[in-house]
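#help-structures

NK: newbie question. if I give both the sequence and a SMILES, will the prediction place the ligand too? trying with pyridoxal-5'-phosphate
OV: yes, paste both and it writes out the complex. here, I ran yours:
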Amino acid sequence: MKKHNFNAGPCILPRIAIENTAKAVLDFNGIGMSILEISHRSKDFQAVIDEAVALFKEVLAIPEGYQVLFLGGGASLQFCMVPFNFLNKKAAYLETGVWAKKALKEAKLFGEVVTVASSGDKNYTYIPKGWTVPEDADYLHITTNNTIYGTEIREDFDCKVPLIADMSSDILSRPVDVSKYAMIYGGAQKNAGPAGVTFVIVKEDMLGKVERVIPTMLDYRTHIKEGSMFNTPPCVNIYTLKETLKWVKEMGGVKKMEELDLAKAKLLYDAIDNSKMFVGTTEKDSRSIMNICFVMKEQYKDKEDAFMEFAKSRGMVGIKGHRSVGGFRASTYNALPIESVQALIDCMIDFERDNA
Ligand SMILES: *Cc1c(COP(=O)(O)O)cnc(C)c1O
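OV: that's the protein plus ligand as structure tokens.
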């Protein structure tokens, strides 16, 4: 049976990126060896990482002065590397969910942290508005897409202090004005590639301003200097990331991705809003187009498990909501075809017809 992959991460990837990775694992560039078996310092692998950097710069129109790095440790290591490299005395954080909170917790190890606003009062179901940033903050940290609760900031706002964004789950889903950010980072495994590689886009002249000593591996300048090869990088993951970026480019770039992602999200949100049985969990003006969270209305709550089983029997995968929200979450990342969204909606309509 055809599977419709709504996993939140790791998640669906373009089929072509998977096929090309499989080929490179068996015989890389026709050299008679697997990409798993060659040196990261070989000319063949150097070409892969160079192309990945070039494609990232091209698809996101990254301006001069920024470096693209591929590191290990996930977005979670960035929660600590960011304050290590940027926080002198005070940092500001916008608390919009679990990931934002985890980032904020690490920053507290390095200095004073101001929470400019939090949506924790309503279980992170909205993006706070009307907050201000202390002008003496070394930076403001935001999480553009709240993967667990399904809210998203889809604009690049002006900020008086350097802006740093965790874009783990919405990178490549829209054009970004990179010039507004001091740094953008994320785990690749939500929309950019497989697990095991972390992307960092950093403005080089923002570095070197903290007074503390930074351990070599945790200093962005080390990785800039060594072209992400201070130590052995996750080679095959970078290969798949490169293939994913190539697919994004060939599909028409991030503008096209945004168009497709908006269409998928609209289709599903409209179905939720028109349903007797289901209801969205987030405020409408904060809705994410990447992670769409919904539950059953109070009077149907006891049917959630039955719907899960029904959807599973129709090939739906990964629609269980995060335990802190419950209900359902459909992640509609770039590689998910609109037909899968329609298949989920058909499930919802058929289930509602027989059970409401
Ligand atoms: C998944 C996720 C993370 C954590 O990423 P890891 O690579 O597992 O450390 C951080 N931030 C956001 C927004 C995420 O969705």
